Amino acid sequence: MKHLETMEEFNALKNNGKTIFMFSADWCGDCKFIEPVMPEIEAEHDDFTFSHVDRDQFIDLCADLAIFGIPSFLVFEDGEEIGRFVSKDRKTKEEITDFIDAL
Question: Which residues are in coiled coils (predicted)?
């Protein structure tokens, strides 16, 4: 999964195609829990671009998007938000896959 570097990159990804942004942080135990399965999830959903957003690096973006718990997922298609899986709860591979499949 590519790590988001700039707000310009966020806007480009958000506005072009289907992108799933995973909001996470190095210190987040629940985020570390799902990291090993994310490559599998990406491979199973290759019609999406996946981007990792470091919550601490992009704290203003998280506030703007109402991302108050991590790990969280926000999905855009051509500039429009089409889904959000946002909470402070631990997420399983099955829950993430079900969320993406329902988009």
Answer: none
